[in-house]
Protein 1
Amino acid sequence: MTNQTILSWFKPTWQQLPLIDKANFPQSVLLTGKQGIGRNQFISQLIQLLLCQSVKTSEEGQALACGQCQSCHLFTSNNHADFYQLKRLENKQTLGVDQVRSVIDWVELTTTLNHGKVLFIAEAEKLSISASNAILKTLEEPPENTTIILLSEYEKQVLPTIRSRCVHYLLPSPDTHQAREFLTNWYTNAKIEIDSTQIDVLLKICQNAPFDAIDLTNSNKLEQRKAILNAMKIIALSNGSPVHEAKELMKLMKKEPLDYIFYCFFTMIIDILKLQNLGNHKHVLNIDYFNELNAFSNLISQYRQKSQIFSIYDELQRYFEMTVNPLNAQLLLESYLIKWKNCCLNS
Ligand SMILES: [Zn+2]
């Protein structure tokens, strides 16, 4: 990693960590924080520092990796033999016991560079019960010079037996000012022209997660978001065909999963419910689509329609709780859009 600056909203957490004398650093650590706020950057900086042979102190008094020693070079080129990241295997919903057993074997091996060893488990909440049981002893008494770092979105998602064996640190989300400042600099450095209103809209959509905002502008996600809004409009206001609109959306997606389309649909349904029940636009996420969402909200006035929109909300919520991908995503999309049409029809 070349950029050693700690993201401004993480500085208080970084200061809390006993980093100046690494001997004081806890051996089993649980970090929690929302996705899209720069967790990976923080953890990468932390691991590099724990492995660094010549830690330096910044002008602000922060401990930082030197960026120049052999260990730093090996880490930044993804070749450090004393670092291991435990990842879920493709198509597996959990981190299984076999994977954990082999990683425990790695933990027990001798340190190559004699500057400690770091194991990183990125989705601590995905450890299966048997995998969790297998790693408990190692978490409780890691070998000398070994640090185990676990990451999860929320503390409560991690099994209590794991939590109780780790020291917990929170990675806070940036406030709007910090997120806006970071994004403005990021787009300036990337030479991408974007005005402050667009940045505010992106931050609203991404709930202040600046790396999610970057991901939106670096992918076709904004296009997907607009496409689902257009499909909703055509169906609700011009008597469009849900089957036809689903087909058009599938063309846009090619072979990509529909998760983001479903997510946008879900947030727009939530916004309509907020407009109906709270009556103000302060909490609307898709603020740039306020006029369209307000028009939908005005259209859905009868009792029957209101219960329909709640049923769409329930179904989408269940979709995001599902642990397996749907067999036929197009059919699922069609069924949601048919429900949307029924919801908008005046009887
Ligand atoms: Zn170094």
Note: The domain at 219-344 is CATH 1.20.272 (Zinc Finger, Delta Prime; domain 3).
Protein 2
Amino acid sequence: MRRKTVTVKIGNIKIGSDYPVVVQSMTNTDTADINKTVEQIKALTLAGSELVRVTVNNNAAAEAVPKIVTKLDKLNINVPLIGDFHYNGHLLLKKYTDCAKALAKYRINPGNVGTRHRDANFTTIIEQAITNNKPVRIGVNWGSLDQQLLTDMMDENSKSQSPLDAKDVMINAMVESAIRSAKLAEDVGLPHDHIILSAKVSGVLDLIRVYRKLAAEGDYPLHLGLTEAGMGNKGIIASTAGLSPLLLDGIGDTIRVSLTPKPGGDRTQEVQVAQQVLQSLEIRNFNPQVTACPGCGRTTSTLFQKLADEIQTHIRTQMPVWREKYNGIEELKVAVMGCVVNGPGESRHANIGISLPGTGEAPKAPVYIDGIHAQTLKGANLADEFKILLQEYIDKRYDRN
Ligand code: SF4
């Protein structure tokens, strides 16, 4: 069951417990480089990102934002853009009114709005959000936590009869900072349903602890994500480990997986991982699910691996076409199994499944459709014949859009 929240509208996307968990991503281009940024936003959107955040860190970036939105409109890409503001956000939003209007949401980190006039700067950003009727994400980050608040809470803790350990105080300070800032924003006049909260840390267990605490405070929708998750497997696994228990508890209304790509790497990987986390937890479906057994000593040579790979690649490359053509295609479940041990059973649980012959088994591959043995394929063209059966199944089963 989802934790109950209000609904926050970000352009044409609604965030909150009455709506599916939304996948978002962030560009890593220089926002002032309009063409590169548009190109990356397009790639992220095509990969399935429903919101895209860009950094607005200087005058050139703020000037570029409305031009980026105009270019995206011309390409018929309607993804809402979020502006990420730090030390000079109050100045940029006041000076570049077209930027303030073009963005669909502002992200503010209360620890990074200046030290001397923190509340005044924060208030200026909130006033711009009110003037332009934009929601904000108040995004606390452990690396830039309001140091005065943390010091005060540490001092208070040291005087307590049963002091908490420093990590607990830090987690409490993050929650306190987010909630205080949200209340301040509401006092300035920002409507309650214009606020999303996040409290990002880089440790998996800290993430789970801080979000459980934050979730208990009010009904603001929550943006989940591990900050600085890292590169490659480490980033993917740590993000999945951190997000999953929270999502299974119904906590989290939008997610971002912050992976560090290799130089020249594919930025859209963070979208694919976020989608796969939600799909694996059966929270949302984005692509047909292919169940392939891992293979073991019972599989014959490389036939199984090749077939499993060929069918998965076929589904992935056809998906953009199928998605346009067939309603509900993302619910499809396909099984490609290596032998008789688990093959027929797993294939029966899929919409369509094939059980390949293992070592020593007769060279034939039964195909199961909706749990019933439909036919048995033989010979060298197993993959092509299975693809034809798959297409026939899709044509029959899914309504055309
Ligand atoms: S289905 Fe057969 S080949 Fe695949 S892992 Fe199980 S025993 Fe091994």
Note: The longest strand covers residues 372-378.
